[in-house]
Amino acid sequence: MNIYAYIFRRLLYVIPVILGVCAIIFLIFNVVAPDPALIILGKHATAEQVVEIRQQLGLNKPMLSQYFDIVRSAFTFDFGRSWSTKQEISEMIKAGAVPSATLSFPAFFISTILGISISLLVAFYRGSMFDKVTVVGCVTLMSVSSLAYILFGQWFFAYKLGWFEISGYDYGFPYFIPYILLPAIIWVMLSVGPDVRFYRTIMLDEIYQDYIRTARAKGLSERVILFKHVLKNAMIPIITYVVIQIPFLILGALLLESFFSIPGLGSITLNAINSSDFPVIRAMTVLSAVAYIIFSVITDVLYTLVDPRVRLS
Amino acid sequence: MNKLSLLSVLIVAVLSMVSCTKKEISSEKVLNLVVGSEVKGMDPIYSNDRYSSNETARVYESLLEYHYLRRPYQLSPNLAEAMPEVSNNGLTYTFKIRKGVKFHDDKAFPGGKGRELVAEDFVYSIKRLADPKLQGLGWWTIDGKLKGLNEWREKNTASETVNYDEVVEGVKALDSHTLQFTLVKPFPQFLYSLAMTFTSATAKEVVEFYGKEFLNHPVGTGPFILPEFKQSNRIEYVKNPNYREKTFPCDATEEFEKIAKEYCGKKLPLVEKVIVSIIKEDQPRWLNFQKGNLDFIGIPKDNFDAAVTPSNELASDLSTKGIDLLIQPSLDVTYTAFNLDLELLKNKKLRQALSLSYDVNTSNKLFYNNRALPAQSLVPPGIAGYEKDFKNSYRGHGKEDEIERAKKLLAEAGYPEGKGLKELTYDCPSSTVSRQIGEYTKQQFAKIGVKIKVVQNTWPELQKKIDTRQVEIWSIAWGADYPDAENFLQLLYGPNKVPGANGSGYNNPEFNRLYESASTMQDTPERTALYEKMTRMAAEEMPWIFGVHRQNYVLKHSWLKNYIITDFEAGTEQYLDVDVEAKKVALEKL
């Protein structure tokens, strides 16, 4: 099948998925969520005001009409205004996307490269003391709570040693760099443990395949085997693992953004959840669903590039 | 370039970025403040929380303000030339507006030059607060108070557009600088609403120019200018170069005489810039303060023991850094409310028994670092209606005889040793401390055989449960909107039941009658006597288990001058000063 036709067909799948996501969001917020009128009006609400604001928000409209409003916003990306802050949601997303991306993408890139490199080394020295120490190190890194890294990192490296900013963010290159260094390092520390363990398993899986034994029998060096054969064949699971994480990177890092006062999408989402700000939660949910679908299409297309045996159908 | 040198260049680049973190100390006077929550926007009619209200008040001004150097709190003129003339029947308030006050320069004005403030701006701003299409969050401050305003609001609810040109008798401009309010009935507390951010002066042409984006383009008459508000982690205000000739007050109550003497007559504001950092987590707030990046902070609970000694003094390591500790009771009350719509909880003896079983002293130690004041009723100290020596006879302190009395009352209520009483549900907000308080309450009630189930809720969920009456017992607190006992007593006024502020649904005709009389009276000993009677009535009836009145603990750096803890901090940063030289020296020690 032509690659463009495939992409087009997969993108059409977005429609039923979005309809389903909208249905779930609609049900959740109409069944369990608190009354937004009360959230908006605060402690001095009167019965008349509650009625008026429900009218203005369209909460008195028929259920089906409310559902179609959600669907429409998902396709037009016009999410309206936040109930809590009254800000334009598309502007909030634009403003939050940059700080989130400046933290999450470099940190993700570094942790992925580091994870793959270490796992290749570990695969190369499999069974040695280096392998064992690395695995134990990874488990140790994974065992410590993310909050502990944040609290210690902030106190020791930023406050005591003064190497980094304690918190904050400045827009524009290179001003943001001092602010994202420490959270990015913590991100890498948090990710490298599970990454190395995952990639190591993939690498070792490949290393014991027949074709590797054949390569060794042909007299190829271990270095050539690892980089030319093992890494290339391990690319499919690696791509799946890496690309599918990207939509979540767009949403930012809730805890890191909150502790380092980075005004990203993670902070926006957290605020929205805390204040039951339905339009913002809806926007973030729809965005992540769309991003997830798009990136799963990208994953499929990338498969064909790294492995010619894979056919799109 | 080989790989090694490329790597070296990268490392050097990163290290130079890191070195950028060492900032030079500005010779400008800059206030560095912090807020612990997002700031919603800069539209006065929506600034109903402390954070948004404080930010809005840096740019906008109201007719009145709280005198910075007088306690008990006292209103003083701000954009008004003087306090109003009040008619004999207490219904008409006539204000003279200051002349020559200019709005900030903005492109919404012809030629970009801010025009002079006139009385009509207040008429417009009050109508905007009442506009049914806008649903201003401060509507409650004027709801039912001004003649013809509720009718105007109602009329415009049904119509397509809101008619701002229609004259409303309750708020009129008599001439360009004379403003008159006419009340429906006497309500002396009305003046407090004129010191709130909700009633700040806004210019009609600016609101119309920016439309829905007005909340991001604050244009007021205030001491600071913010060209555009962006929801971010930092808000930076600059001094208004055209600010009117407002000077530091020369009169003060005794405790602030020294400040008045030093700063009397100095032109306001005292600093060039105000930088507000939004830091939601306690640790970065605490560390930034200790590093000197913030001028003052409220002490986070987890750092309290490190900052304050058991004898209520500042820890020595902080005092050697030139940090000062300030303590002041806040105008608030925490409480555990009963849903009095439920037949079960209408049982007064049951409520009294539960209150007696609750050891307030231990809860004070556990949750308030033993620094709060156990509440005897609902009115906090510092305002008329609070009686220093009054003791609530159903207030528990963990004593054996109190538990015995509680058990006896429970038996009289019809539930000896809790037998026959179903497990009650206790709802609380989802914070860790609230949950801990819930668990503590559970343990306290268990002493007399009463079982409760603790349920955590997000704040909106708890609000919804209260308003839809799906609650039995819940914990909550109230902070003063203005320094008058009426603001606390209205929490038990029958007609204020949900969605009004009377969540427990207490409805005692005698209490309601007293409240109605007192709320129309001027501040007199007779009114104070009525307030006291009502607080005693509440202490006997126990619609709530009264908790504590909390205290504010604030740390400030020595370079920050004139800082005073206040319950009404909106607009007060104009009185603060920064000693730049002292800051340079102090930062060396941090």
Explain what this protein looks like in three dimensions:
The complex is a heterodimer of chains A (313) and B (590). By secondary structure, chain A is mainly α. Chain A folds into two domains: 3-76, no CATH class; 89-306, MetI-like fold. In chain A, 75% of the residues lie in helices and 0% in strands. Chain A is built from 16 helices and no strands. In chain A, helix 6 packs across helix 9 (177-207), helix 7 crosses helix 9 (177-207) and helix 12 runs antiparallel to helix 16 (278-306). The longest helix of chain A has 36 residues, at 89-124. Chain B has 590 residues and is an alpha+beta fold. Among the domains of chain B are: 43-217, Dipeptide-binding Protein, Domain 1 (Dipeptide-binding Protein, domain 1, Alpha-Beta Complex); 332-549, Dipeptide-binding Protein, Domain 3 (Dipeptide-binding Protein, domain 3). Helices cover 31% and strands 16% of the residues of chain B. In chain B, the strands form seven sheets. A five-stranded mixed β-sheet of chain B has the order 16-15-17-13-18. In chain B, a hairpin with an 8-residue loop joins strand 2 (64-66) and strand 3. The longest helix of chain B is centred in the first third of the chain and has 17 residues, at 3-19. The radius of gyration of chain B is 26 Å and the shape is globular. Chains A and B meet through helix 3, helix 4, helix 8, helix 9 and helix 15 of A and helix 1, helix 8 and helix 15 of B.
CATH class of the largest domain in chain A: Mainly Alpha
Largest sheet of chain B, described in full?
Answer: 5 strands, mixed
Please state the oligomeric state of the protein chains shown: heterodimer
CATH topology of the largest domain in chain A: MetI-like fold
Look at the helices and sheets of chain A and give the structural class.
mainly alpha
